[in-house]
Amino acid sequence: MDEILKPGQIVQCSPSGMPCTIEILLGAGGQGEVYKAQLGGADVAVKWFFPQMATPEQRRSMELLIRKGAPSEHFLYPMEITEASGVPGFGYVMPLRPKRFKNIVDLMKRKIEPTFRALATAGLNLSHNYLLLHSQGLCYRDISFGNAFFDPVNGDVLIADNDNVSVDGAAVLGVLGTPRFMAPEIVRGEAMPSTNTDLYSLSVLIFYMLMVAHPLEGAKEAAIKALDLPAMTKIYGTDATFIYDPNNDSNRPVPGIHDNALAFWRIYPQFLRDLFIRAFTEGLRDPANGRVRESEWRNEMIRLRDSIFYCGHCSMENFYDSIALKANGGNPGLCWACAAQLKLPPRIRIGKSVAMLNHNTELFPHHIDDNRMFDFSAPIAAVAVHPTNPNVWGLKNTSQDKWVITSAEGAIKDVEPGSSVTLSVGTKIQFGKMQGEIKI
């Protein structure tokens, strides 16, 4: 296929008037081609729309996004419009995605093996950034695993293909979404993309990330011989049924076909499973009121991070599940990976939250201050081993503020910045306005 732009070709940026030099083609999609380019000595990406996509409406939409600016640095957002002499249509400049970011397709193909902590962090970051977008009165319209990228090491995220973004409720410019991610009411032809349909797509994306499976693909999908348009309309629209709907077992995962859904569902704690159940039961029946909000996913991804602890036998991540723990008489159960008996580490309860105190646990400002929600700027506490006794572990004060502790016996002591408190059951720590208590 002939490329629209050639290596070395100059395109002009508007409104700055700066020249941008095309280097190589990175890829092509349904709307246009993306190139690596140079702008002012920096690497950037240029997307050039195919002629049929370069409509006046699309251009006005791009100009609006450029004027508004990116909701955060996690969006590969349009920076300037680009044009080239003798080339039909137009394009735009956006930041270039660093190679460390992968998409969910890489996870599905097992090209990457991120930790549960990295996945939960990516879910947190995606939820937070889509919330920022929606708070500007915009909808993304095409949330899918092809447009969301994450660092499998630390869970950092980037959101691409932002030319799909539009004002919520505005006329649709081209795409309705990606098959398997579109809300059922869009599949049925009853609605157009909106912030509310984005919520459904976000839930599907998070389910894919954590379960490596689709929430509606079970026995009904397995029974279909040809997954053509009528079949997809049925599975994802007219007869959409969650594979773990507690009141409808007609679409359960099939062993040998949906093994990921079978394996991963049992690993996660009940609070997360309950949220997925709500997203794909109430969220299907009552789109206007039943969808899980971005802020709820954000809260539960933090809770999921905090519930991680490690198997003492194989070191694999497991999850603290207070509901299962109570049902099993205090027995945390067996490791999902090696079937060894699990042993819980100490944990700290601060307000309504519980964080497992592993060898690598850090607490952040949002743990101890409700006014600093989702603040991961710098840890205020970290689990650390005693400098002379490897059998004694403590919680080190890495903040700038003094703590006050009360032992189980009632003794009161100050813990200055840089000092530690031993992880002893019943010890209470006053973090300013919030108090934590160490438990086993």
CATH topology name of the largest domain: Transferase(Phosphotransferase), domain 1
Low-confidence stretches: none
SS summary, helix count: 13
> What is the count of structural domains?
3
| Biggest sheet, spatial arrangement of strands | 1-2-3-4-6-5
**Radius of gyration over alpha carbons?**
25 Å
CATH superfamily of the largest domain: Transferase(Phosphotransferase) domain 1
Give the helix/strand class: alpha+beta
Oligomer: single chain
What integer is the average pLDDT?
93
Count all strands and give the number.
23
CATH hierarchy class name of the largest domain: Mainly Alpha
Q: What is the beta-strand fraction?
A: 15-25%
Shape: globular
Main sheet? 6 strands, antiparallel, barrel
The level of helicity is: 25-40%
For the record, the CATH architecture of the largest domain stands as Orthogonal Bundle
Determine the N-to-C terminus distance.
63 Å
Task: Provide structural commentary.
The chain is of the alpha+beta class. It has 13 helices and 23 strands. It has helices at residues 56-68, 104-108, 116-135, 184-187, 195-211, 219-222, 229-238, 259-265, 270-279, 282-285, 294-306, 322-327, 365-368, and strands at residues 10-14, 19-28, 32-39, 42-49, 80-83, 91-95, 102-103, 138-139, 148-150, 157-159, 166-167, 308-310, 317-319, 347-350, 353-356, 362-363, 381-385, 393-397, 403-406, 412-415, 420-422, 428-431, 434-439. Helix 3 (116-135) packs antiparallel against helix 5 and helix 3 runs antiparallel to helix 11. The longest helix is centred in the first third of the chain and has 20 residues, at 116-135. The radius of gyration is 25 Å and the shape is globular.
